[in-house]
Each structure stands twice: as C-alpha cells, then as structure tokens.
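Methods — Computational structure assignment.
A single polypeptide chain was analysed. Its primary sequence is given first, followed by the predicted tertiary structure written as structure tokens.
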Amino acid sequence: MIKWAGRIMVLVGVAHLLLSLGFTVTTHAGAWLGGELWTTDGALDSMEPVEAAFWFSVGSFGLPLTVVGATVLWMHRRGLVPPAFIAWAIGAWSLVAGAIVEPAPWIVATIAAGMLLAGVRRAARAGADAPVAAS
C-alpha cells in the first residue's frame, strides 16, 4: 500500500504540473518572466489572471506533492516506513481543499493518504523495528 500511495502522489503531482503548465505557460510565461507578478498588489479579491495562473501552476502544490510521493517511494525501496504524519498532513490538506474547491481531483490525494496511513499502520503491526518488504 505504501508503494501505491507514493505512486499516486507522484502521478497527481506530475499530472497537475504538466496540465497546469500546459494551460498557463503559453499565455503567461512572458508576463511572469517580465516581472509582472512583482507589480500586482497581491490582494486575493482582485487577483489578476497572470497571478491566478501562477498559483495554479508554478506556485501550486504540484511539485511538493511530487517530492513527497517520491520520498515515500524512496523510503519504501529502502525498507523504511514513512512517518504517519505525512499521511495525516496530505489527508487533512486534501480534505480541506476538497471542501473549498470542487470539482477537482482532491479525492485522489485523500485516497493516497488513506493508503499510506494503512500501510504505515500495517508496518507498525508487523514490527516497528523490522524492515518492510519492498513489494
């Protein structure tokens, strides 16, 4: 379960990055590189499309989710059990975000968090000091 949770996190993170960059880079990259983000007031109630595109793509949680998923996979390959707080943090984040913005694939991150937590608990029951078999 740990391996699949990591794979799902990587998949969701990479897919979000690629899709969002595909939608935003062609239209907004010039403005980003030209410093236009530095001249906005940053107010959420009057966000410009160039700001929204940044937070949707480059500034999103896509890359950090990819890194977290890759770390989970890296730990699993070495027989290390990821800490449960990773599952709890990803799960809480995805539930709150999903309650705020729908439709979106938050449920996939929630499922990955649940799988990770189940895998961590299964490994704890198998023996905290015993390495987890890489399956």
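Note: The CA atoms of residues 76 and 103 lie 32 Å apart.
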